[in-house]
Amino acid sequence: MLPFFVFYKGLVKLRTKGEDVDLITSQICNLIMPQLRDLF
């Protein structure tokens, strides 16, 4: 799980840089979040 949080922190940093990155972030989160729910 730790690599995910490091990866997520990197995404949050990228989000502050631009709208297009924000769009990519939301798409990645949409892919990852259901898998996280399955883990917990």
From TrEMBL:
It comes from the Bacteria. This is Uncharacterized protein. It comes from Phocaeicola vulgatus CL09T03C04.
